[in-house]
Amino acid sequence: MRTVPADRLRGEGISRRTLLGTAGATGLVLGAAGGAVGYAAAPAQETPLTSLGDAQVMFHGKHQPGITTPMQARGHLVAFDLAAGAGRKEAAALLRRWSETARRLMAGEPARDGDTDVARDAGPSSLTITFGFGHGFFARTGLEKQRPVALDPLPAFSSDQLDKARSDGDLWVQIGANDALVAFHALRAIQKETGGAARVRWQMNGFNRSPGATSHPMTARNLMGQVDGTRNPKPTEADFDRRIFVPDSGAADPAWMAGGSYVVVRRIRMLLDDWEQLSLKDQEDVIGRRKSDGAPLSGGSETTEMDLEKTDAEGNLVVPINAHARISRPDQNGGAAMLRRPFSYHDGFDGDGVPDAGLLFVCWQADPLRGFVTVQRKLDRGDALSRFIRHEASGLFAVPGGAAEGEYVGQALLEG
Asked: How many angstroms separate the CA atoms of 396 and 392, rounded?
């Protein structure tokens, strides 16, 4: 295995993985599982990275990364507005730069120009960078005829207390990684690459449990302590692609959205002081599942099918009629399904010590009207959880399919 001399650790486009000591005959082992990568503590000595740092997700593919990728420990969501005077040409150049930066960083390489070295000692750490277009992007670029009908603004909901300054945007970027420095490094690189083409509209930071923190893989918990995501659609299901991704042909969507998906992003504040005053039983009745293991109140394990008709000795429904898990079930919403891939957030405390914390709700679907909107309308009419949450920001973005080798994300739209 070839090592890199100390006087070559800077410049010449040396990859972060080469910096870490993997090159030459061993090559790079690519793919979702990553490969055997080391770092150079000194030029003549190499120590393998941990499996967490070693994991790599591919940038190129039919779908963009960060959709079906397992949930990551750290995330950043950021929206941009195109700068005054920037149009289709500037947007195309920006997406070309962003895509190249994403490809490099996800491979464990440094950013294109002036890398900050924040992630110098780390492997890719399952980094993903995902790009989407908001409703206003199409007018700004003269592409109104290519704007999907599915991107029409979301309707208002009773739990909305939306801050317009932290909602929507022309462009949206999702960054996820299993290392906080790797995630921040990507955020900074993406922001620097905007140049004069765009400006940050809003940015949010989130987190999840780190891989390996539990004795065995588990469904994530949210800041209410509840297991969250039990009934997520799974790629192994026969109708997964139909529910989550725009088909290659025969869809009402424009051709450039083939292989893409629509993402709804909501900053949902959890009223934790109120929630934590509830007894364990009351909390479980609100959700419809046991807090300890996520099993339905009707019995069984987390994955046991919920018995909506089961009653107790007094004849009361075991799963209350307004329980969140009952109301949000696909079979209670005409089969509506969405792939939830959220991050928790905590942005400090207000003057009274109330935590500004909750969920950066991110959900994916082939059709937001049949997915998020259908379910949220049902929740709006009587979900027991509604009095413990507040929707404070919102966005809907069209996320095109993945980029092929030598292409950039959104090329079929911007150059079609």
From this structure: 14
pLDDT in tens, 159-182: 899 999 999 999 999 999 999 999
Question: 131 in a domain, yes or no?
Answer: no
User: Is residue 416, in this structure, part of any structural domain at all?
Assistant: no
Other beta carbons within 10 angstroms of residue 362's beta carbon come to 25
Structural domain boundaries, residue 31: 1-7+14-49
Structure tokens at 68: 């079906």
> CA 2, CA 387: separation in Å to the nearest integer?
60
Active site residues: 228
pLDDT for the residue numbered 14: 38
Parallel/antiparallel/unpaired status of strands 339-340 and 198-207? unpaired
Q: How far apart are CA 336 and CA 365, in angstroms?
A: 9
**pTM for the whole structure:** 0.87
Identify which of 204, 179, 82, 171 has the alpha carbon closest to the alpha carbon of residue 128.
179
Residue at 143 is within a domain: no
Q: Which residue has the higher pLDDT, 26 or 194?
A: 194
Q: What is the mean pLDDT of residues 19-26?
A: 36
Q: Is residue 354 part of a domain?
A: no
Give the separation between CA 367 and CA 338, rounded to whole angstroms. 9
Side-chain-side CA neighbours of residue 236 (13 Å): 0
